[in-house]
Amino acid sequence: MAMMKIKSYTLILFSLISIFLLSATLSLCHHDHNLRQCRERCEQKQKYQQQRCLRDCQEKYGGTGWESTEEETERSHEHNKRWEEEQQQQNNPYFFEEESFKEWFRTQDGYFSVSQKFSEKSKLLRAFDNYRLSFFEANPHTFLVPSHIDAEYIFYVVKGKGTISLVNQESRETYNLERGDVLRVPAGTILNVINRDNEQKLQFAEFAQSISIPSKPRDYIGMGGQNPESFFNSFSGEVLEAAFNTPRDQLKRLFGQQKKGMMFQASEEQIKAISKHASESHQKRKGKSSRGPFNLLQKSPLHSNEHGKLFQIDGNDYNQLQDLDMSVTFKNITKGGMMAPFYNSKSSRFVMIVKGHGYFEMACPHLSETQQRGQRTQAQEETEQEDVHYQRISAQLRPKTAFIIPAGHPTTIVASKNENLQMVVFGVNVRDNQKNFLAGRENVMNQMSREAKELGFNMQAKEVEEIFNNQKESFFLPGPQQQQQKHDVPLNSIYDFPAF
Prior knowledge:
This protein is an alpha+beta fold. It is built from 12 helices and 27 strands. Helix 1 (2-43) packs antiparallel against helix 2 (47-61) and helix 10 (450-457) packs across helix 11 (461-468). It is globular.
């Protein structure tokens, strides 16, 4: 009798366990099915909405790891990897996706987009609120309505051929532009641009320094009407009549006729006429006193080898950059190559990607410090001694993205294995700046005494020097994938080493 009861209880217990496991399995499968469906819905959304959507899916359903097929498992892993990368880039205060650039205007013939206020991304960027980055693109035969801006502008011609006219109270200067040209447009100068090419788009990478309201440079359009709106329409009718000595109905027609938008097509005759105004005496003058464009790519490269090439000018080459204390650089890292890790002593750099793909890595003590501070009470902060920690900052690079390298931050940039990575770099506070390389044949560690090396690394100086002298290239180096192919061993990121 007792044995029958035990068997009966065992059978009941086994049934209950089976029911529980079956219920848990069905629940997990249902949960995972919901996660997959949620992610699939995210893929249907606009690109700028996908990041938020994937994060919401992950928070709501999590990752069970229960996938019904190998294909679904691989897809799940890919989703998780993409989500983690997007999370990392979203939390990167120094990196700006294409979506971070707000379009000031867009027509069927082109657009102009400006970066967000830097301190909106992070308080760490408060010092850069007076600066903005922007992209400009115009289709062939497109005319940009004249305007003036309350900011100092530096243009770099990424692609195409254009003509620009700069007008002030005393003069008008017209210049033909081509790829590699750098041009300063002083604040308040009325400018108009035209793409004089028959086939190719005209593209600028631009840097602005506000002179009125910090971080908010604005266009002031006089030669407009209803679209774009002319600022003349802000004045009263009687003031305009008195100012122009013209009847109000004629003025109303003058300042109400334009409805084509900021950019539109011009005729071939109009383009030729505007281009003719470009004085030959102004074209590509190489003297440092020139007010016209300076072609950066016609200057000898500052650094060049099979892994990359760098062209750079500052106020010593082009006096229009002198009072702004700026430099303009064009870098081309060949596929699979990288820049040797470096830091600038006092200059901060604003990097705009114009072609290719790759990634950058940076060591940042400020972000790590901010995270630690958020985890400690005020009493702990007052009594504890802070250790030095570095947060690795990284992001995937592609055209129309940008990032900032603050002074002092060790950084490297790596090109993808499939294509060259090209970028325009605007440097501020460049006077007396020193670029210090942390690896490569000319690395700064070679300047340290043997005793300092031994004490700093707690190793024999000979061994330290052997490691720092293994790399025979300078500035541009073979990248991680090239090194991996060469040695056929996996390499970790340089920032995985204890020093970082």
